[in-house]
């Protein structure tokens, strides 16, 4: 599956997606999260994660379902 990844050097995306927080005084650090974005415009699913790793299989399954559905 070919998917683009985002690098958010200035925290702008973390703020826009509502996942920014300030651990140990560091600003705009994103909480562990994943977003499934359709056509680069609409969020069709999101996962807010804690310390655990994401269920990659569930994310890939939902992405494939959105692609065919």
What does the model show?
The longest helix has 13 residues, at 56-68. This protein has helices spanning 12-16, 56-68, and strands spanning 20-21, 29-30, 33-38, 42-48. By secondary structure, the chain is an alpha+beta fold. It has one domain (12-68). Helix content is 26%, strand content 25%. The chain has a two-stranded antiparallel sheet. Strands 3-4 form a two-stranded antiparallel ribbon. The protein is globular.
User: What is the molecular shape?
Assistant: globular
Strand count, sense and barrel status of the largest sheet are:
2 strands, antiparallel
String of helices and strands:
HEEEEH
Helix content: 25-40%
First and last CA, distance: 16 Å
Content-based structural category: alpha+beta
Average pLDDT metric: 84
How many individual helices? Answer: 2
Number of strands: 4
SS strand fraction: 15-25%
Our Rg estimate from Cα atoms comes to 13 Å
Arrangement of strands in the largest sheet: 1-2
Into how many domains do the coordinates divide? 1
Spans of at least 5 consecutive residues with low confidence: none
Brief descriptors of the model:
about 70 residues, two-stranded antiparallel ribbon, two-stranded antiparallel sheet, 2 helices, alpha+beta, 4 strands
Secondary-structure blueprint:
Blueprint: H1 12-16, E1 20-21, E2 29-30, E3 33-38, E4 42-48, H2 56-68
């Amino acid at each position: 599956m070919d998917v683009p990844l985002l690098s958010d050097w200035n925290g702008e995306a973390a703020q826009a997606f509502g996942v920014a927080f300030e651990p140990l005084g560091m600003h705009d650090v994103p909480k562990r999260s994943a977003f499934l974005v359709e056509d680069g415009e609409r969020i069709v699913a999101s996962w807010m994660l804690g310390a655990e790793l994401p269920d990659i299989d569930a994310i890939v399954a939902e992405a494939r379902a959105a692609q065919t559905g």
